[in-house]
């Protein structure tokens, strides 16, 4: 079983270097990583070159595109079509994985589900902009509760970062929620293709949930394991947020939910892939 990690990137080259370093530290390496950039910021290319100079050995594909508004889902659909893995792990270019992240996704995935780590443990922007985190990623001290709890503004419990598998599993059972998170979720590639990928018309706020709803409608159930699938989010402002567009997204998601819709309104995957949905029914 092969797994492709798809990293959505925009303009954060420094953060992406930390993220890719996290994947280099994995106990179970991804079979492929695709960096899908909305836009053409040279800082992203510089981050890729920096990790390659350190002896990078994981197959790495870099895709970018002309930026036309919020184009994250267009970039992700291009990556889905290029992916070689049976499993697709979706994350962002500011989310640093713990060293057991990929191994736990592979261990827990099974047919008929998508798997989500849900919300991240965040490192405040005021801290990570002033500190070089690369060495702490390499030796994994960044994931120690003692390290994080000393950061001003950090407010998670120690259980959120536990490495005790039995405890993480027990806590996951108590906090299950059927929701897809574009920064911390994994699905079978053929399931993503079957629902036509991401809806490229959607702006920020609700587009990931939309994917989960449509997966539900072909019988794929969401399972959350946020205490097991640990990554750290380098927090930041969101200048691209628009309340009106988020409301429109939620209105559309209600229609998708109540109408049990499967295919998106607009998708590169729908344009380029032939489906046989009746065969899945």
UniProtKB/TrEMBL annotation:
Pfam families: Glycos_transf_2
GO MF annotation: an example: transferase activity
Gene3D superfamilies hit by this protein: Spore Coat Polysaccharide Biosynthesis Protein SpsA, Chain A
Transmembrane segments: none
Key words, A-Z: Transferase
InterPro entries for this protein: Glyco_trans_2-like, Glycosyltransf_2, Nucleotide-diphossugar_trans
Residue span(s) of domain Glycosyltransferase 2-like: 4-113
PANTHER family in UniProt: GLYCOSYLTRANSFERASE, SLR2126 PROTEIN
Name of the featured protein: Glycosyltransferase
The species this protein was found in: Rugamonas aquatica
Source species taxonomy: Bacteria, Pseudomonadati, Pseudomonadota, Betaproteobacteria, Burkholderiales
């Amino acid at each position: 079983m092969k797994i492709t990690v798809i990293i959505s990137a925009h303009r954060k080259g420094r953060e992406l270097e930390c993220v890719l370093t996290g994947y280099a530290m994995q106990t179970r390496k991804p079979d492929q990583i695709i960096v899908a950039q909305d836009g053409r910021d040279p800082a992203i290319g510089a981050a890729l070159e920096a990790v390659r100079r350190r002896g990078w050995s994981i197959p790495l594909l870099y895709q970018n595109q002309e930026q036309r508004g919020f184009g994250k889902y267009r970039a992700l659909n291009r990556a889905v079509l290029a992916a070689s893995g049976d499993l697709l792990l979706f994350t962002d270019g500011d989310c640093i994985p713990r060293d057991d992240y990929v191994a736990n996704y592979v261990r827990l995935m099974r047919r008929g589900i998508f798997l989500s780590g849900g919300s991240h443990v965040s490192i405040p922007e005021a801290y990570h902009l002033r500190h070089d985190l690369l060495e702490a990623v390499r030796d994994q001290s960044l994931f120690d509760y003692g390290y994080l709890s000393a950061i001003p503004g950090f407010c998670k419990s120690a259980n959120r970062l536990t490495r005790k598998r039995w405890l993480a599993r027990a806590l996951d059972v108590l906090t299950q929620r059927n929701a897809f998170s574009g920064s911390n979720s994994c699905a079978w590639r053929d399931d993503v293709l079957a629902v036509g990928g991401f809806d490229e018309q959607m702006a920020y706020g609700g587009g990931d949930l939309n994917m989960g709803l449509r997966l539900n409608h072909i019988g794929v159930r969401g399972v959350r394991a946020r205490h097991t699938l640990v990554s750290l989010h380098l927090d930041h402002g969101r200048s691209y947020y628009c309340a009106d567009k988020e409301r429109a997204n939620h209105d559309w998601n209600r229609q998708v939910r109540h109408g049990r819709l499967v295919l998106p309104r607009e998708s590169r995957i729908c344009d380029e892939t032939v489906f046989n949905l009746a065969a899945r029914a």
